[in-house]
Design brief:
Radius of gyration: 31 Å
CATH superfamily of the domain at 213-259 and 285-320 and 353-413: Nucleic acid-binding proteins
CATH architecture of the domain at 213-259 and 285-320 and 353-413: Beta Barrel
Distance between the termini: 69 Å
CATH class of the domain at 213-259 and 285-320 and 353-413: Mainly Beta
Structural class: alpha+beta
Strand order of the largest sheet: 1-2-3-6-5-4
Helix content: 25-40%
Oligomer: single chain
Number of strands: 21
């Protein structure tokens, strides 16, 4: 990776994270900072007017001898601020002398979301990080760094790979030998089938627990982005749900909401054959906005996995009838409450997001086709599904969601292991005996 240097002192620029989105490359001696292409959008409110002003002035016709720290092409001064900053026509990055970023943001205001720049604090943090790096390096013993040996890496890969294969063959051979010295002491019956099914199901629970663990690790590894700083690809946001147009009505309660999901189940059969059978389910398809203190972005919920634990259930049985709003919702969905003899026993479930309710979204940020770079991501980017990434919508915070997933991992892992081990022990104890 290219290490950029300050145009004045030629020291390495220090990367400093910011609350507005991208990291900034800053001179630790306080001479200036570097903005890559597009990064000005996050630090100047009315950057559209700024770019228009640069286009109107046309820059300065005299090319300087200063080389771009990113691509090493010649840079040109721009006179829309004092002192003028330098821009590169090749990579379109900007070098701003100290104080220029603050003056640009004060001059070009007007966005819906105010931006506060504490430029002096950025330089202070860059100087502190520079000192910390130097102190750490000074305290370390000076050893010559060895280059990795590709042949050595491949040796260990093959070594451990061979070890795993050999261990697997030994395990299979041991199981085969044990089976040869054992015989069935009980006839094969339905109980044995249940035990075999339980064993397979236990291992299935372990695999599912591992999949939940992978999802938990994914959520932990993706940092939560502010909406103003969203980039294309897999993103994680948290904010308040808002309708795109008008509010929706939850199908069974009639409550105003911005998104809902529902399921309708009918109780069929009797005795041992009684079960709940799903006869209808779905979600609302209307997109909704998620907003935070930096802006808002559209979420298209089609194909999302919903984690909305606060579920409302309505059912009719000998205890009572369905509420009128639920019956109206069933009629709207085309689901009859009557059968050829009597009424159906139904269980109606719904979950929804209320206006201004806190919502968590992990999904893929896409760019609207045919749109150009604009002030707010709400007109340029939307979050939706992708074949390559997870798409989760939840009314829980990230902390609560991770805690919920952690309990699921423990539950599926321990439960699956206990189920599989118990079934195997019973099979070997009651159905197999060792030959003498």
């Amino acid at each position: 990776m290219l290490t950029m240097k300050c145009l004045d002192c030629q020291e390495d620029l220090i990367k400093i994270p910011t609350s507005h989105g991208p990291e900034l490359d800053i001179c630790s001696s306080g001479h200036g900072l570097w903005l890559d292409v597009g990064e000005v959008n996050f630090f100047v409110e009315d950057y559209v007017s700024l770019k228009r002003a640069i286009g109107d002035t046309g820059g300065v016709a005299v090319r300087t001898e200063t080389l771009c720290p990113r691509c090493e092409n010649h840079m040109e001064p721009e006179t829309v601020s004092q002192p003028p900053f330098l821009s590169c026509d090749s990579c379109h990055g900007w070098w701003l002398p100290r104080g220029s970023l603050t003056r640009l943001n004060e001059t070009y205001r007007g966005a819906a979301v105010p931006i506060k720049i504490h430029e002096a604090e950025l330089y202070t943090r860059a100087a502190a990080r520079h000192r910390a790096v130097n102190d750490t390096f000074r305290d370390q013993p000076r050893f010559k760094k060895k280059r990795p040996n590709p042949q050595g890496i491949w040796f260990w890969v093959l070594f451990f790979g061979f070890g795993f294969v050999l261990g697997g063959l030994i395990l299979v051979a041991g199981i085969g030998k044990a089976m040869k010295t054992a015989q069935w002491s009980q006839p094969l019956d339905q109980t044995l089938l249940y035990l075999a099914t339980g064993t397979v199901g236990g291992f299935g629970l372990i695999v599912y627990g591992w999949m939940v663990h992978q999802r938990k690790r994914l959520i932990e590894s993706i940092p939560t982005s502010t909406i103003r700083s969203l980039a294309l690809g897999l993103v994680e946001i948290s904010g308040q749900a808002q309708p795109e147009e008008g509010l929706l009505s939850a199908p069974f309660s009639g409550l105003p909401c911005v998104f809902y999901s529902y399921a309708v189940e009918e109780h069929v059969g009797s005795g041992k054959n009684a079960r709940w059978e799903t006869i209808g389910k779905g979600t609302s398809e209307q997109p909704f906005f998620v907003s935070d203190t930096t802006g808002r972005v559209l979420v298209v919920p089609l194909g999302a996995e919903l984690i909305l634990p606060n579920e409302r259930t309505y059912r009719n049985n000998w205890l009572g009838e369905l509420p009128p709003t639920t019956i109206t919702g069933l009629d709207r969905l085309g689901i009859s409450t009557e059968r050829w003899m009597g009424s159906k026993t139904l269980r109606c479930r719904e979950s929804f997001l209320l206006p201004e309710e806190q919502v968590y979204v992990l999904g893929t940020a896409h760019e609207h086709l045919g749109t150009r770079e604009s002030v707010e991501n709400s007109t340029r980017i939307y979050i939706g599904s992708s074949q390559d990434h997870e798409f989760i919508i939840s009314d829980r915070s990230e902390k609560d969601l991770l805690s919920r997933l952690q309990w699921q991992v423990l539950g599926f892992g321990v439960g699956g292991l206990t189920l599989a081990a118990t079934c195997l022990i019973i099979i070997f104890k009651y159905y197999l005996t060792t030959k003498s």
